[in-house]
């Protein structure tokens, strides 16, 4: 989150100077670089998580995040070492992307398998709450350094990444005290006991348990639901930031400051979801947020056409942050339709692939669609994503109804 929200500053330091249009493409490339290797990271850490356990993955990924933060914090700029700086920072972003997707997935699955509904919905939503808190903290730190008198000092922004590395190291140490997730451990113990009691060979039960796979329709539906959040996030923080810079003359520091206040609204909204999910079924919440988000998006081009102002951008950023349609707080429901011994690998890979594709399409696509259709070009991205989302949600709703 530190790099994502300080990209306006860091891209100038680690990449060559370009014209405004190329700068938009470079910004898109920088943003997407963290997602290119996520599918490979998902397969690697997914295998480890399903074979060795959830605990080891969250420890490994947090440590990798700490190491990459240290490298970025000490990396010379483009002006000092040329294109090498661009390649190294891109590699660090790729490592962070691989680690981030496995870390969040591992934490969500860990809590899903260690709790029961309805408390389970609120507990798993805590992962998203603390992720949002991380975003707010990153924006707060970025705002302090980019607005301070030491903005141009060589070491000012680097302190933020060293702080991030310190937090990651503390998290790594803390997570060593976790015990393994109950459902994962219980499933392994049941298989072991069955082997011993019935004198069976592992090959005899591999097909039924170890190699069990989710249905293709469930996998596709989960993939489409995971496609929802990336364009929403990009619209709220990145696209609106570009609009503020290009249309209203905001500096990078001013964009970061405005995004900081938006992140606080986002954090409060997710906290409210955690509470509501204990009282209201998550699928009902998802449907309401979906429709309200599109109502918000519909009025965005209209408002900016008749009453353009930076405050109107802030207003729509906050509304979109509250009504963003994604998998929260229904995450545990989606997980339970994937076999325990394939859950980490499948959900991690599908999520990573969905984010890679949608971030690529969104970040590069919006540069062209909005240049042709103006603000209405947003719907070229959001309309198909929304259709896939609501159809996929109906699939999981049917699975829930069948269980009842």
Keywords for this entry:
single chain; globular; 81% helix; 404 residues; mainly alpha; Growth Hormone, Chain: A
Proportion of beta-strand residues? under 5%
Helix percent reads over 70%
Question: What profile does the largest beta sheet have?
Answer: none
Q: What are the segments in which pLDDT stays under 50 over at least 5 consecutive residues?
A: none
| CATH fold assignment | Growth Hormone, Chain: A
CATH architecture: Up-down Bundle
What count of helical segments does DSSP give?
Answer: 19
Give the end-to-end Cα distance, rounded to a whole number of Å. Answer: 40 Å
Task: Round the Cα radius of gyration to an integer and report it.
Answer: 22 Å
Structural class: mainly alpha
Q: Quickly name the level 1 CATH class.
A: Mainly Alpha
Query: What is the 3D shape?
Result: globular
Q: How many E-type strands?
A: 0
- Helix-strand sequence: HHHHHHHHHHHHHHHHHHH
The number of distinct structural domains comes to 1
Average pLDDT for all residues: 83
Kindly report the name of the CATH homologous superfamily. Answer: MFS general substrate transporter like domains
